[in-house]
Design goal:
Rossmann fold; about 25% strand; globular; alpha/beta; 19 strands; seven-stranded mixed β-sheet; single chain; six-stranded mixed β-sheet; Metallo-beta-lactamase, Chain A
C-alpha cells in the first residue's frame, strides 16, 4: 500500500467526528466536509480565509462574508456558497446525519474564521490560520472550548516569539523616513491580503506618501466595502512611484518594476524575521517581525483556552509542536504523512 493510500485510510479519532488526512488536507468523512482543501472538491469545503494556498475551485463552500468577497476577487467563478455570520450556527445534513457548524473570528486576516463543528455530543474546533495577538485590521480571535482541536502550527518552535506590534511598526516608519531622506523609494514587502492592510493601518498617523501595488490596491478596496478605514494612498503608477512608500507582495523582489524605480530600500515583513538570516534569504535591506500567524506562546495559549482531549497539528513545524504538547501531557499528533506512517508502524504487531 502506498504512503498516500495508507494515510488516506487512517481515521485519527474513533468518534462521531472521525478525521482523515486526504490529499494534504483534513477531511471529516462522516460529515462529508473538507477543511481548507488544497485541491478542488465536489463535496462541501470550509474555507477559513482567502489566502491563495487555502482556496481552490470547489463546488460548494462554507465561509464568512468578507472571505466570500475576497475569494471572488482572487478566484472568480460560480459556486454554491454558504455565507455565515460569526457566532450563528448553521445545520448541515449529510446522508442520514447532520451537524452544526459555527464560525468564530480567527484573528489571522480580515474575515478569517475558525469553524466549530458539533455532532451529537462532540465538538471539534478547526482553527485554520489564527493569531491571538490583537491585530489592526482583523477581528479579534475568539477561541472556543472543544473536545478535538485541529490547529495551524506554522511557528511551532520555541524560538518563534514575536515582539509587540507597536515597536515593530515604529521601526518600519523609521526605515521609511530614512529612505525618503536619502531620496530612495521605500519598498515594503508583505502579502497583498492581510499583511498589507495591517501595514496600512499601522502607518496611518505617520504622514508617509503611500502607494499600493495593483494586487494590494484591489484587496484593500474590498476591506473598505466592509467599512474599514485606511490612511490616504495611491495606486501604483510607474511614472510617479519614486520617492514614495510602496507596498508590494514579496514576489516583486528583483523584478523590472523595482529596477525601474531607481534608488530603493527594501524591507520584508514576516514572522520569519525572527531568524537572523531572514533579510539575506529574502534579498532585502531590512526585515521586520510582523506576522499574522500565532507565535509559539500563542500556540500554547490556544491549547489552554480550548482545553481539548485530542489535538492535531497542521502546517509548519507540526511534528515539533505535537511533540512539545505530548511532553506537556497532551494527546497530540501531527496531521502529516510522515508522522502518521511512523505511528502506524509503531502500532503494528512485531
Amino acid at each position: 500500500m502506498s504512503l498516500t493510500n495508507l494515510t488516506a485510510r487512517l481515521g485519527f479519532c474513533v468518534s462521531v467526528l472521525p478525521i482523515e488526512f486526504r490529499q494534504g488536507s483534513p477531511y471529516l468523512p462522516a460529515q462529508g466536509l473538507w477543511l481548507d482543501a488544497r485541491e478542488a472538491q465536489i463535496e462541501r469545503v470550509f474555507v477559513s480565509h482567502a489566502h491563495s494556498d487555502h482556496i481552490a475551485e470547489h463546488k460548494e463552500i462554507i465561509l464568512s462574508a468578507p472571505t466570500a468577497k475576497l475569494m471572488q476577487v482572487r478566484l472568480p467563478g460560480t459556486r454554491q456558497e454558504h455565507v455565515l455570520n460569526f457566532g450563528e450556527p448553521r445545520r448541515f445534513v449529510h446522508h442520514n446525519g447532520c451537524f452544526d457548524l459555527t464560525l468564530f473570528p480567527a484573528g489571522h486576516i480580515f474575515g478569517s474564521a475558525m469553524s466549530l463543528i458539533q455532532a451529537e455530543n462532540q465538538r471539534l474546533l478547526y482553527t485554520g490560520d489564527f493569531k491571538l495577538r490583537p491585530g489592526l485590521s482583523a477581528e479579534p480571535c475568539q477561541p472556543q472550548p472543544a473536545d478535538i482541536l485541529i490547529m495551524e502550527t506554522t511557528y511551532g518552535r520555541a524560538q518563534y516569539v514575536f515582539p509587540p506590534t507597536e515597536p515593530v511598526i515604529k521601526g518600519v516608519i523609521r526605515f521609511c523616513r530614512e529612505a525618503l531622506d536619502n531620496a530612495e523609494t521605500a519598498v515594503l514587502l508583505g502579502y497583498s491580503l492581510g499583511k498589507s492592510q495591517e501595514l496600512l493601518c499601522g502607518l496611518g498617523d505617520a504622514g508617509l506618501p503611500l502607494m499600493l501595488h495593483g494586487a494590494v490596491f484591489k484587496l484593500t478596496q474590498v476591506y473598505e466595502q466592509f467599512g474599514q478605514c485606511f490612511p490616504k494612498y495611491e495606486r501604483y503608477e510607474a511614472g510617479s512611484a519614486r520617492g514614495k512608500v510602496l507596498l508590494c507582495p514579496p514576489n516583486v523582489v528583483n523584478s523590472a518594476m523595482l529596477r525601474n524605480l531607481g534608488k530603493i530600500r527594501t524591507a520584508i515583513l514576516t514572522g520569519w524575521a525572527v531568524d537572523p538570516n531572514c533579510r539575506f534569504r529574502y534579498q532585502c535591506d531590512a526585515a521586520f517581525p510582523l506576522s499574522d500567524h500565532a507565535d509559539f506562546p500563542d500556540l500554547i495559549e490556544m491549547v489552554k483556552r480550548v482545553g481539548p482531549k485530542k489535538i492535531y497539528t497542521w502546517h509548519g513545524f507540526a511534528a515539533d509542536f505535537a511533540r512539545t504538547l505530548r511532553e506537556l501531557g497532551y494527546d497530540a499528533q501531527a496531521l502529516s504523512q510522515e508522522e502518521q506512517l511512523a505511528l502506524a508502524r509503531h502500532r503494528a504487531p512485531v
